[in-house]
Amino acid sequence: MAERGRARGRRAGGRAQSSSPRRPERTRRGGRRARLRRGLSATRATGAAKVLGLSTTRRAALAAIVVGALVFTLAVPLRTYLSQRSELAEYEQRKAELEQRVARLEQRKAEQNDPAQIEAEARRRLRYVMPGETPYIVQLPEDRTRAEQPPPGQRSVPEGTWYERLWDSATGR
Question: Where is the composition biased (Basic residues) (predicted)?
Fold first, then answer.
């Protein structure tokens, strides 16, 4: 009788009484193999999530918060760095322009130390003449019209008082 009870118990405890069929032994091994294949990192991540009690959504939200904090932390220094680089480029360009200007001025200074250059400038600007030379000035008609016109940027001053000009403009003179 004891043997019969054992045999029944084995059958009853296994497939006959359970509502779902028992998985074959091969499937369970395949599941273990798949878990081993996932690697140690997946197991650690799953373990960390279980310890911290975080779901996948919460872990993603936490990762987004960390990334956002890093972005905001790096944004201001990065902006400062880029603005300083642009300022440095502007200053270097300005320095190059000033160096060119200094070179031109030094060249002009060297030219003005030459006596022949001083004499030529005196003749051109001041209309100087050496002793024994006869100066001639030729005036062309274009020169007179230029001399009579006011320089650009200056207005000519109208003649007469304001009320005379008003009367003349009203009467058509």
Answer: 29-38
